[in-house]
Specification:
Distance between the termini: 27 Å
Number of domains: 7
Strand content: over 45%
Number of strands: 60
Number of helices: 0
GO cellular component, one term: plasma membrane
Largest sheet: 7 strands, mixed
CATH class of the largest domain: Mainly Beta
Keywords: Immunoglobulin domain, Signal
Pfam family, one: Ig_3
CATH superfamily of the largest domain: Immunoglobulins
Structural class: mainly beta
CATH topology of the largest domain: Immunoglobulin-like
Protein name: MDGA1 protein
CATH architecture of the largest domain: Sandwich
GO molecular function: axon guidance receptor activity
Oligomer: single chain
Length: about 725
């Protein structure tokens, strides 16, 4: 026994057990603590937890095992139509506030402690809900054979989303209708509706059938979900919506115009609701909807698109009218010079054919008018000078000027002008000079520029020299990776042949290709060249931190390894001990640095830091070296750990633990035990001698004279010849 403090209380020290508990596999059990409607055993292997949508789901995974298992919650989707999804919660309690229907499904609790097979338990969460029902009306009129009158049939279709499947009740006024109640009523479920729809069919409509109809849906008050209903007044004027537009289905306007599109109702009872929408994207900010009128002020090119006017009154199908709104625009005027295709020429030669092409991106494209000028005067067309529109070899609505049998007199400056006739859109023009100096392009990389090496975060410039007349744009792309350029697109266009990259990253390393564009130049096979970009970056090392334990007097080798870096070579390595520089010669190895501590002692224990440089940057490995013992691991699965002493209103607790990796350091001599009642400051300290220590040996100590029903914090620290090791703490709670 040991004396504890001035209170002269005694703690009885039990003998250590001789049994071994090298490990105990994880066990798991799921319990619920949230707002469940019911938890039932659906079958032998599955438990079902029913909860109302919007309530709070709380599931707890109770685990046993030694060492203490780690708990991970995962989920599979609730239905086959949903993609598999997984959410991970590393906690014994899974809590979902305001649960939604898509969060229903099977939840798995996985308990794992590295011993044996992980324990996996599951429970299916069934989320119950009942949406507002939707009632639609459809009417058919058919001729009756042999008669001169028509038969009118009405279908009232009631649809609802619910879980569990809803029960439908149809009422005419206050009267509940049943299937085949009379010859004029039929109630049925359409095919392929999975119990979500019921149809009330009124055959050969009679005067008494013009009445108020109610569809009532119920999930039989499961989870206290109330019934819901919807009512429709059927009259002899009930009709689906009809619309007409004040503008054509295709409307072409000029930028800056103010336009109003009117969508008028021409039918429908009850009064339909009219809604405007835009695709793609939302309605423009400079628009206003008032009833069936849509007004757009100072219209912009980006306001183009399809505008849909829809009228709905739940009778028949919605009425829909669509306007394709086109805002006139012209941009990107380009030209092409195509040498004689038949002779497969790539240069301009007298006596061969030559084609000049002109194109603009316009809306509407087909309304563009092209005009050609030579040396400032309108081009005179002849049997040698032909105009072609919609050349099949070129983009749509491209205008070409073809010169047959090129002569010296054909040299000159040609101007192509694109116009929207009668519209206030500025003309676009592009100029092409044809002479003996007009030659196809060549591409080369300046000397010393084929490989560019820069540091991460800096600026890089890749250069491609283009010669020729005219000089076409240069298109840059990546060769070795299917990744976009820094701009986000797969290609980048430059007019001076230079690709400028700001704040480069290591992912930008690789081979880049520059090639001539086929526009604003010769329409021939592109010329291309390659540039290699090397981005240097600081080394990435491991371990970032390592806790190294070793017995007193033993040696230990520390290694800091370079995993990644550019250049991938250790230039210098510097070791420090507790901030003091150590003399360490550079080893021959190229990707790591080592330091050997010959003898671990109190003097050599501490923080070792290795800084590795590759001449670009420095990264550090940190090692904490000591002979400290690892912490004990409490055993939580002790059967009946609480021993009550009813007469004295005290209780005892059987504290059990194993020692983590006892052979890693010097033998453990004793344990320091600290016991403190929660909400109090005083701590009772004692020491527990160790008679035998092996890995997996279950150690035991009885804590007596604990007050009912108080809880206590227990701290346990192993002691070796080096000193105190790592402490472990847990809370002891009184249980009947």
């Amino acid at each position: 026994a040991a004396t504890l403090g001035s209170g002269h209380k005694r703690l009885l020290l039990s003998l250590f057990t001789s049994s071994f508990l090298s490990a105990a596999p994880a066990q798991a059990q799921i319990i619920h603590a949230g707002q469940a409607c019911v938890v039932k055993e659906d079958n032998i292997s599955e438990r079902v937890y029913t909860i109302r949508e919007g309530d709070t789901l709380v599931l707890q995974c109770l685990v046993t095992g030694h060492p203490r298992p780690q708990v991970r919650w995962t989920k599979t989707a609730g239905s086959a139509s949903d993609k598999f999804q997984e959410t991970s919660v590393l906690n014994e309690t899974l809590r979902i506030e305001k649960i939604q229907r898509l969060q229903g499904g099977r939840y798995y609790c996985k308990a794992e402690n590295g011993v044996g097979v992980p324990a996996i338990k599951s429970i299916r969460v069934d989320v119950q809900y009942l949406d507002e029902p939707v009632l639609t009306i459809h009417q058919t009129i058919s001729d009756v054979r042999g008669s001169f009158y028509q038969e009118k049939t009405v279908f009232l279709r009631c649809t609802v989303n619910s879980n569990p499947p809803a029960r439908f009740i149809w009422k005419r006024g206050a009267e509940t209708l049943s299937h085949s109640q009379d010859n004029g009523v039929d109630i049925y479920e359409p095919l392929y509706t999975q119990g979500e729809t019921k149809v009330l069919k009124l055959k050969n409509l009679r005067p008494q059938d013009y009445a108020s109809y109610t569809c009532q849906v119920s999930v039989r008050n499961v989870c206290s979900i109330p019934d819901k209903s919807i009512t429709f007044q059927l009259t002899n004027t009930t009709a689906p919506p009809a619309l007409k537009l004040s503008v054509n289905e295709t409307l072409v306007v000029n930028p800056g115009d103010n336009i109003t599109m009117q969508c008028s109702l021409t039918g429908g009872d009850p009064q339909p609701e009219v809604v405007w929408s835009h695709s793609p994207g939302p309605m423009p900010p400079n628009s206003l909807v008032q009833g069936g009128n849509l007004t757009i002020w100072r219209i912009r090119v980006e306001d183009s698109g399809y505008y849909n006017c829809t009228a709905i009154n739940n009778v028949g199908n919605p009425a829909k009218k669509t306007v394709n709104l086109l805002v006139r625009s012209m941009k990107n005027a380009t030209f092409q010079i195509t040498p004689d295709v038949i002779k497969e020429s790539e240069t301009i030669q007298l006596g061969q054919d030559l084609k000049l092409s002109c194109h603009v991106d316009a809306v509407p494209q087909e309304k563009v008018v092209y005009s050609w000028y030579k040396n400032g005067k309108p081009a005179r067309f002849s049997d040698r000078l032909l105009i072609t529109r919609n050349d099949p070899e070129l983009p749509p609505v491209t205008c070409s000027l073809e010169i047959i049998d090129l002569r010296f007199s054909d040299y000159g400056t040609y101007l192509c002008v694109a116009t929207f006739q009668g519209a206030p859109i500025p003309d676009l023009s592009v100029e092409v000079n044809i002479s003996s100096e007009t030659v196809p392009p060549t591409v080369s990389i300046p000397k010393g520029q084929s490989t560019i090496t820069v540091r991460e975060g800096s600026r890089a410039e890749l250069q491609c020299e283009v010669r020729g007349k005219p000089k076409p744009p240069i298109i840059w792309s990546r060769v070795d990776k299917e990744t976009p350029m820094p701009s986000g697109t797969m290609t980048m266009e430059t007019y001076d042949g230079k690709l400028r990259l700001e704040s480069v990253s290591r992912e930008m390393s690789g081979t880049y290709k520059c090639q001539t564009a086929r526009y604003n130049g010769f329409n021939i096979r592109p010329r291309e060249a390659l540039v290699q970009l090397n981005v240097q970056f600081s080394p990435v090392v491991e371990p970032a931190f390592q806790d190294v334990r070793q017995g007193m007097g033993r040696s230990v080798t520390l290694r800091c390894t370079m995993l990644k870096g550019s250049p991938m070579k250790v230039a210098t390595s510097v070791w420090r001990f507790n901030g003091t520089l150590l003399a360490q010669p550079l080893a021959e190895q190229q990707d790591y640095s080592e330091l050997k501590v010959d003898s671990v002692s109190r003097e050599t224990s501490g923080s070792y830091e290795c800084s590795i440089s590759n001449d670009v940057g420095v990264s550090t490995c940190l090692f904490q070296v000591s002979a400290k013992a690892y912490s004990p691991e409490f055993y939580y699965d002790t059967p009946n750990p609480t021993l009550s002493q009813k007469q004295s209103k005290n209780y005892s607790y059987v504290l059990q633990w194993t020692q983590k990796e006892p052979d890693a350091v010097d033998p453990i001599l004793k344990y320091r035990l600290e016991v403190r009642q929660l909400a109090q400051r005083n701590t009772i300290q004692t020491f527990i001698p160790v008679q035998k220590m092996e890995k997996g040996l279950l150690l035991e100590h009885i804590l007596p004279n604990l007050k009912v029903p108080q809880s206590y914090e227990v701290r346990l620290t192993p002691i070796t010849s080096f000193g105190a090791g790592d402490m472990a703490a847990r809370i002891i709670r009184y249980m009947e």
